[in-house]
Design goal:
The structure is a single chain. This protein has 14 helices and 2 strands; from the N terminus they run αααββααααααααααα. It has helices at 2-17, 28-39, 43-55, 84-106, 112-119, 123-126, 131-150, 157-196, 205-215, 219-237, 241-249, 256-271, 277-280, 283-299, and strands at residues 59-65, 76-81. The model is unreliable at 67-72 and 183-206 (pLDDT under 50). The chain is mostly helical and 302 residues long. The protein starts with a helix and ends with a helix.
Length: 302
């Protein structure tokens, strides 16, 4: 089970890193809430997964803001895929962002490294400004690039995968213990949420933000950024069964492996029909989607 969640969390970080804008580094305070909402992971379970990914060198975890007890500010981290091509792409994004913001504030255009030399000694005092986090991220990305070049052997896929399995064995017991402790609470909460008709994960503003972003880009682009797993999970939770059928019908999703992922998700939905009265209203759409997936898998050549 933990392997699946690790894969989901890592793919989400990679997808967000590929946005090619100043939101390309997911921040822990937002990332945790979104992931909890979508996949039902507790903050403790997520922290274990992040720890595993970080210690196996799959990701870098950079400190964005320090914890301030007096001002009740929590520590915030940013997550980056530990791949040199990804780091170089992000360097381009944030160095440009740093130069643009510097020009906006100081009305003069300077190179990013010149700005870093000038402002870095004063980082603590500008940490709460717009330019402070940009400066911090640019410096950290430069450090990661140097680290990847210097310690290349520790960032190969072979090294990462070997140490990933070691860390899973080390922390899996804690993850399972947390999951087991939450089961009774989760059942009670689910019953309350279903009877009250609110507090479902799909009602989260984060999912609404996701669908808003998807509506502004092509389906192909959305699938590239978020992956079939994440994309389908959201629309299944929003009861958009006919929409997924249309996507499959048009051939946008046609790989057998992707279709199997959706089929397995849909099976869980069908298993819950008797527990979710809202699902009963979509029985025909669910069955139609099920037939469409089965047919597409049989005819898929990819």
């Amino acid at each position: 089970m933990i392997n699946d969640f690790i894969d989901i969390v890592f793919k989400r970080i990679v997808a967000l890193n590929s946005l090619h804008n100043l939101d390309s580094i997911p921040l822990s305070n937002i990332f945790f809430k979104e992931t909890e909402s979508l996949f039902g992971l507790s903050p403790y379970e997520l922290s274990i997964i992040i720890k595993i990914l970080n210690e196996s060198h799959k990701i870098f975890s950079m400190e964005i803001t320090r914890e301030e007890y007096d001002n009740k500010k929590e520590i915030i981290y940013g997550y980056v895929d530990a791949d040199i091509l990804n780091i170089e792409r992000l360097q381009g994004v944030f160095h440009k962002g740093l130069m643009d913001e510097y020009e906006r504030e100081y009305h003069i255009r300077k190179g990013s490294h010149q700005i870093i030399r000038e402002l870095l000694p004063n980082l603590k005092n500008i940490s709460n400004s717009i330019i402070g986090p940009l400066l911090n991220k640019s410096v950290m990305l430069d450090s990661y690039h140097y680290l990847l070049e210097k310690n290349h052997d520790e960032y190969t896929e072979e090294w990462k995968n070997e140490h990933l399995q070691q860390r899973i064995l080390l922390y899996e017991g804690l993850f399972k213990k947390s999951s087991n402790n939450d089961k009774n609470t989760e059942k009670n909460d689910t019953a309350k949420k279903n009877t009250s008709g609110k507090a479902r994960a799909v009602d989260s503003p984060f999912i609404n933000d996701f669908t808003d972003r998807v509506n502004k880009i092509s389906i192909e682009r959305a699938l590239h950024i978020y992956g079939v797993d994440f994309f389908s999970r959201v629309y299944l939770r929003k009861y958009k069964f006919s929409y997924i059928s249309q996507v499959i019908e048009t051939g946008i999703i046609d790989r057998k492996s992707d279709l199997i992922i959706i089929r397995d998700m849909l099976k869980k939905v069908k298993d819950n029909i008797n527990q979710d009265k809202e699902l009963e209203k979509y029985y025909d759409d669910i069955m139609s989607l099920d037939r469409k997936i089965t047919s597409s898998i049989n005819y898929s050549t990819k």
